[in-house]
Amino acid sequence: SYNMPYERYSGKPPGGIELTRADLVSQYKAVPHSDYAYLIKWNEYYAPKALNYLLTNGLYVNTAFKSFSIDTHEGSMDFGYGTLLIPVGRQEVTAEEVNQIVNEATKLAGIQAYATKTGYSTKGIDLGSGNFETIRGPKALMVIGDGTSSYEAGEVWHLLDEKVGMPITKIQSDDLRRAIGQGNYNTLVLVSGNYNSLGEETLEGVKQWIRNGGTLITIRRATEWAISSGLIKTNEEKETPKAETTERLDYVTARDVRGATAIGGSMYQTDLDISHPLGFGYTRRDLPVYRNHDHFMTPSDNAFSTVVQYTENPLLGGYVSHENLEKIGGTASLKVSSLGRGNVILFADNPNFRGMWYGTNKLFL
Fold first, then answer.
1. In this predicted model, what pLDDT tens digit does every residue of 120-131 receive, in sequence order?
2. What is the largest CA-CA distance in the chain?
3. Distance of alpha carbon 115 from alpha carbon 249, whole angstroms
4. For the whole prediction, is pTM greater than 0.70?
5. Model confidence over 278-332: pLDDT tens digits?
6. DSSP 163
7. What is the CB neighbour count within 10 angstroms for residue 291?
8. I need a labelling partner for 364 at 20 to 30 A (CA). Which of 128, 167, 219, 242 fits?
9. What Cα–Cα distance (Å) separates residue 32 from each residue in 56, 85, 126?
10. Nearest of 90, 85, 104 to residue 31 by alpha carbon
11. Which residues contact 212 (CB under 8 A, 6 or more apart)?
């Protein structure tokens, strides 16, 4: 659940290992002044918390779409996909104020920033490269209330409010069309629920909002609805009814049969494209996910848009029937579909399960 690398323990290591609390707590260190730029690694779990602070305090922040190495105040460092770049010269405040805000952000998140005096890298892209893109600050909206999962809505709210410090506006479905029409939001989150009551006009309004540059994020049953409602064009195929007669079973066995064929909660191995923007910050392609539903999402027709895909034999732990395991293998856990200038991000699984599945939080953030 934490996506930590592991090996089977086969015995006590020579001499033993003793960990103290000091070993486990990150030690924040203030970053020295720079007149050129600061860098923050995106693989830190709380990097989004620092980013949110930087953006809400008016700083321009870029993100790296390729890896590089560069000299910093702590020597030559390697930086991966998603690294945050805060260029001093581009800001609308003084260099001293930039340093202060960066230090406040990293202290709040408990992570480290690195100062550099040059844009020339020792390996990989330079800091002036076109492989850096400016990050747009999210202004998020989420539909709650009747017909939606209060569990999943609470998980999203808790993640953003407690771990990132980012507010999210919560509205009833009746207010969705008006809310997106005001132009105040660029991100919409739909958790599991029944959205058939939105109506055709609201559905068309959501489509137009996406075409204009909005980002729609759907989770589990909301993904199933987005596909079945025609909100987006996908290559999903409806299962055709079987011609043969359904096998007759004794009523007393109904509960056992349904339980045996349900996917009630189990863990699976997936392959993550760590070079995709949604995969930035991850350093290994193996990613365990939690699954408790029977919606099977086909990979995207676009070869670059299936971000997370189940391996062919994915079961890591928990019960699943042989029939369902065969269905899961090779399907998509996360993919992206573009619409106009916007995107629909489709989670087949819940990346924020019970507020404790830390390993997939970064995909959502």
1. 999 999 999 999
2. 77
3. 69
4. yes
5. 999 999 999 999 999 988 999 999 999 999 999 999 999 999 999 999 999 999 9
6. I
7. 26
8. 128
9. 22, 15, 21
10. 104
11. 340, 341, 342
